[in-house]
Amino acid sequence: MNHDFSFLLNKRVRVYDAAPKPPAHHKRKVEAWENSNYEGVISEVREYDGSPCITINFKNMYGSGGQIVASFNRTVSVQLVGHGKLWDGKRNYDVDLTQEVQS
User: Fold this and answer.
1) Stated pTM of the model
2) Are residues 85 and 96 in contact, defined by beta-carbon separation less than 8 angstroms?
3) Mean pLDDT in each 10-residue stretch from start to end of the chain (103 residues)?
């Protein structure tokens, strides 16, 4: 059965797990937390076994001074679990369905 998940395309998404951000002096823990908790834009959507498979473009590599030095794409298979809510088995994805991000 084909579903239309195109309503997710070009929407801002916040990806997070349940853990709070560790204190800044725990550099490795902060780095691991930032790898699992980020914001981005859904740049591609396709169906996989009846669920959406999304590609998120996000900026997640920081240099000294906190400036972004690289951006990445991450593709994940997720389940739709509510209005604007996605889940991949480990992390929550909150999708802002109210505004489309211009490329």
Assistant:
1) 0.70
2) no
3) 79 85 92 82 83 77 55 78 83 82 67
Alpha-carbon dihedral angle through residues 11, 62, 15, 17, given to the nearest 10 degrees: -170
- Strands ordered across the beta sheet of 51-62: 68-77, 51-62, 38-48, 11-16, 92-100, 85-87, 79-82
Residue 62: other Cβ atoms inside 10 A: 13
d(CA 32, CA 24): 12
CA distance 77 to 56: 11
36, containing H or E segment: helix 27-36
> Going by DSSP bridges, is the β-strand pair 11-16/68-77 parallel, antiparallel, or unpaired?
unpaired
